[in-house]
Amino acid sequence: MEEHQLKAAGLKITSPRLKILNLLAHGELDHLSAEAVYQALKDLGEDVGLATVYRVLTQFEEAGLVERHFFSGNQAVFELTSDSHHDHLVCNQCNKVFEFSNDKIEQEQAIIAESLGFVLNDHRLHLYGDCKNPQCTHKIQSK
Amino acid sequence: MEEHQLKAAGLKITSPRLKILNLLAHGELDHLSAEAVYQALKDLGEDVGLATVYRVLTQFEEAGLVERHFFSGNQAVFELTSDSHHDHLVCNQCNKVFEFSNDKIEQEQAIIAESLGFVLNDHRLHLYGDCKNPQCTHKIQSK
DNA sequence: TTTGCTGCAAATGCTTTGCATGTAG
DNA sequence: CTACATGCAAAGCATTTGCAGCAAA
Q: Which SS3 state, helix, strand or coil, does residue B74 take?
């Protein structure tokens, strides 16, 4: 149950938080912007203020429940933190996001950080390109 | 000479463009925000409007002369495009940026993109951590 | 009841744009 | 002379914050 995760994060169990967590966990879409979360909830008839969406997503991030990514540089997108780490491949045409993971890369990153005397906290690997899928001929706005 | 690069990019040779290109090529600092470029020029007694700095940096980026990075998510930084590709390691404490390159990682990225049917255009690999350098005890604002 | 949460509107910070003036070619 | 550049001020967008009213524990 989602309630448990909120409690573990030291957050009160409130309706907006449950709705947002539920949307991220069971919704159709992934890698949603705050605005997209706001809209998705509105479309479900669940009205939550945009400021609250921002606040809750930030709290979730601080609690480690979600991760924030900047694929485009001007708008953050959020995804539920998954048990298995992965990186991202973004299509420049349709903005679709693909996930992948690669142990060799992870390993090399650790070696590099080590050799430079760094204690690694986090990292982001974003690949940008064009997916050749037939369905990717038109631009889809994933705002 | 810098003039040649501007000409090759189809840009008129103007004073602001030369000053900015020169700053990036021969200045002390690297990975500068637009604001930082504006300030650095002002400190040199060279006044260039902030809007012009933004416009010129964007034109340089389009021409492939500079690269734009989002290390922090809310402010872009720019660096001269170098002949040798490299990725970045950012210290969470002092915001210092270190560069590195790793052929294995580059190679794996290509394999991943290939296997997912992607034509790769670009990528960003950012490592975040704490550098253990003695000089990194205080927070330095690299604004 | 107390502490923390929500919604709204206003504020913020980075970046872009409109427009009148200036200047490279 | 013409097309493109510049500077300023205003606008734009994503995100944050202040505050009064609400709700969870």
A: coil
Segment A79-96 mean pLDDT: 94
Question: Residues near A93 by Cβ (< 8 Å), separated by ≥ 6?
Answer: A130, A131, A136, A139
* C-alpha distances out from residue B7 to A122, B11, B60, Å: 41, 6, 12
Instruction: Sort out which chain A residues have CB atoms less than 8 A from B90's CB and list them.
Output: none
* Nucleotide lying nearest to B13, CA to C1' measure: C24
- Confirm whether any atom of chain C, the nucleic acid strand, is less than 7 Å from CB of B96: no
Q: In chain A, how long is the greatest CA-to-CA distance?
A: 53
B137 band by pLDDT with thresholds 50, 70 and 90 = low
Tokens of B140: 């330095």
pTM for this prediction: 0.92
Contact A96, A59 (CB under 8 A): no
Q: Torsions phi, psi of A9, nearest 5? A: -90, 0
CA distance B129 to B124: 16
**In B22-38, which positions are buried (b, 16+ CB within 10 angstroms) versus exposed (e)?**
ebbeebeeebbbbebbb
Instruction: Output B40-43 pairs: Cβ under 8 A, ≥24 positions apart.
Output: none
Chain C: nucleotides below 7 Å from protein CB are: 4-10, 13-18, 23-25
